[in-house]
Amino acid sequence: MKKIVFFLGKGGVGKTTSSAALSFYLSSKNKTVYWVSIDPAHNLSDIVHLDLHKKTQINDFLFAEEVDVEGYLKNFLHNTTIRMKEMYKYLQIVNLENMFDLLKHSPGMEEYALMYALKEKIEENQEFEYIVVDTPPTGLMLKILSLPFSSKMWIEKLVRWRKRIIDHRGAIANINPEKIDDSLALKDEDDKVLKELGYQSDYITFLVNLLSNKSKCKMAVVLNEDEMSLSESMRIINGLKGLKLTLDFAILNKEGTGQKYPEKALNLPVIKMPYLRNAMDIKTLTNLGQRLKKIVE
Ligand SMILES: Nc1ncnc2c1ncn2[C@@H]1O[C@H](COP(=O)(O)OP(=O)(O)OP(=O)(O)O)[C@@H](O)[C@H]1O
Ligand SMILES: [Mg+2]
């Protein structure tokens, strides 16, 4: 994979249209493209009129897919439950069954499932030259992007604490071996919790490294000529700043439909896309995409 492109922005500004335009343009230039939606309210299929529940070939160079967010969430909870039950089976006083039922409805689960989906889809599709991601609106997307960074910090802390627990357990076992249950690990390499943390850490490090790789990962904010999409773009810029990530471009879409636009406020190179009155067919999208080629140059 040469580059991955994320289109961010407020609801309805033209993220899906921009991702379609770039995908069709690149594929018209014989570049292989994997165009993926991680927006739970998908609408790539509205553009190509195909069922995209599975990765589907659109033309010789373009494949598209709408990630099954519900399916990922179910799988994520199912697999986590199995691993946790196995890991903590010695803790009979804790009712894990109830705990996992609760987890299903906990805030943040959808974001976690989306983060895992994103990682798996990127990893599975490395053979494409370009991956173009259609994202959900700002609030959800900022949460998805910040999860790998906050999780990395927590996992590093948890690994340190876990190692201390194992150290202390070892010290107790030296003095009074019968106090330590046989199933409990006394060395880091035998501990199932550390193994699980290592597994989580691999996932998260993959995403942190990719998102932080300025030459591979390109991010553009899409906005229209209105105050609300401008202030939301500023929210994205500031949200990303907290993760030490930066945007590469602003796409001023539907140009000519609003007030004159204060471009300087964003401090980003701006690509303008006109408001198109005619239907958005593939040819129109491909032409529109030519304006976006700078993003991947
Ligand atoms: N340049 C344009 N000219 C005319 N219509 C446009 C243009 N860009 C987008 N649209 C139309 O605006 C609507 C919203 O666009 P789009 O679905 O791409 O936005 P979005 O940011 O992906 O929205 P959501 O947040 O709901 O996913 C669509 O009907 C689309 O066809
Ligand atoms: Mg969309």
Polypeptide structure, described:
The chain is an alpha/beta fold. It has a single domain (3-144, 213-296), classed as Rossmann fold, CATH 3.40.50. The chain has 9 helices and 8 strands. Helix 3 (69-87) packs antiparallel against helix 4 (96-104), helix 3 packs across helix 5 and helix 6 packs antiparallel against helix 7 (192-212). It is elongated and about 80 Å long. 31% of the residues are buried. The structure holds adenosine-5'-triphosphate and magnesium ion. Adenosine-5'-triphosphate is lined by residues 9, 11-17, 39, 43, 137, 253-254, 273, 275-276, 280.
The average pLDDT value, as a whole number, equals: 90
List how many beta strands DSSP finds: 8
- Note the total helix count: 9
- N-to-C span: 14 Å
Tell me the CATH architecture.
3-Layer(aba) Sandwich
Largest sheet: 8 strands, mixed
Strand content: 5-15%
